[in-house]
Amino acid sequence: MLNAPLSASSTELVINVLTMVLNEGKPLDRAYSHHFSGLKLAPAEQARITAVAGDILRRLNLYCFLADIKSSEIERLGTQLLNAWHMFHGLELPKMQYALKVEQTDFDQRLMEAKQQGALFDGCPEWLDELGQTQIGDKWPAERAALATPPKRYLRTNLLKGTREELIKTLAKEGVQTKVVETVDTAVEVMSDSALFRTEAFKNGLFEQQDAGSQLVATAVDAKPGMRVVDACAGAGGKTLSIAAQMQGKGRLLAMDVEQWKLDSLKQRARRAAAHNIETRIIASSKTIKRLKLTADRVLLDVPCSGLGVLKRNPDAKWRDTPERLPVLVQLQKDILRSYSRMVKVDGILIYATCSIMPQENREQVDLFLANNPHFVFLDDENISVAESGFDGFYLARMQRTAEG
Ligand SMILES: C[S@@+](CC[C@H](N)C(=O)[O-])C[C@H]1O[C@@H](n2cnc3c(N)ncnc32)[C@H](O)[C@@H]1O
């Protein structure tokens, strides 16, 4: 992960970020922007800090166990945690003032104990481990271990502006090293610690940062030029922009969400990407959906979900979430499927997707929907496994409407 210890000032930043996330309940990206603003950190140092803070959050219970502290004590005992983190990774200790030490013999004993406990070693809270076991059984330990690894950085080539090979060459000229992802046509993996959003290539809309698994979901929409397509839970448009490129700017792409600020951000991204066939629309009530009855060739429902497939990238979520949230989300997904599927026209295709790896939010939702909606037939589905793909975890299913119903 690192080949040298963090500097004293960087350890302090890591402790401050962790404190903001764990004690104040702030999302990790907000904590980064708060603590990095005005600092002018070199991109490589910023990358080291985010790598360490992210890794600590992915295995928070393990590092706290090794340091013999509670997560609520990080503000006070953070130096002890950072020392344990460096010891775990076989690094020299950082040169922090007044740092609290961890005894090597205690550390070794605790590490031996932790290695006997899979969930603890993989940084998994108890509630999540139980859920994973119940939902995916034998496959869970591999997914759990994969979710404890650092996420890779992927870009999606904006095909409206050029090919993947052209993007790789342009980025190389700006010092960004990338490599092709063989299994995803639009994806490249970033190999250097570059500040991507400061590049001319980004400003000119040649790429978006997007996980390769998310790119696969968007590809499954298989939108064609001239079609009418609805992305009904579009958010800030990660998948909308990819669909716009599939449509080569021809046809009508309606991006909807219940949050206007997300659609505003989508509009900005669409301008940069030269994706001119996107219209945004807020979902104000069920009437917004009813008016679009039987009109769309493709409807993507990238529904709100537990996000349990993307914990590598959002490790703070598992320390904030509770198992009680899941049934609420499952009900919302059911309602969205039932109501929004009305927009699909006869012979049109409905694509249901989540960034979860739990069948309760995935295939079980699809089976229930099909049982209650005989005018849809199942085409195919795909579980994008974190362990098998190395990407974030996603699910997608495609269903076709055969009659008005
Ligand atoms: C998984 S996110 C979508 C991510 C987005 N498609 C992307 O690729 O970047 C789910 C989105 O659903 C939205 N949402 C929540 N409730 C909704 C509802 N009842 N109808 C439509 N969208 C909803 C959320 O605001 C959120 O943006």
TrEMBL record:
It comes from the Bacteria. CDD domains: AdoMet_MTases. The keyword Lipid metabolism does not apply. One of its GO terms (biological process) is methylation. Residues 143-405 form the SAM-dependent MTase RsmB/NOP-type domain. InterPro entries: MeTrfase_RsmB-F_NOP2_cat, MeTrfase_RsmB-F_NOP2_dom, RCMT, RsmB-like_ferredoxin, SAM-dependent_MTases_sf. GO terms for molecular function: methyltransferase activity. Keywords: Methyltransferase, RNA-binding, S-adenosyl-L-methionine, Transferase. The active site is at 355 (nucleophile). The keyword Lyase does not apply. Pfam families: Methyltr_RsmB-F, RsmF-B_ferredox. S-adenosyl-L-methionine binds at residues 257, 302. Belongs to the class I-like SAM-binding methyltransferase superfamily. RsmB/NOP family. This is SAM-dependent methyltransferase.
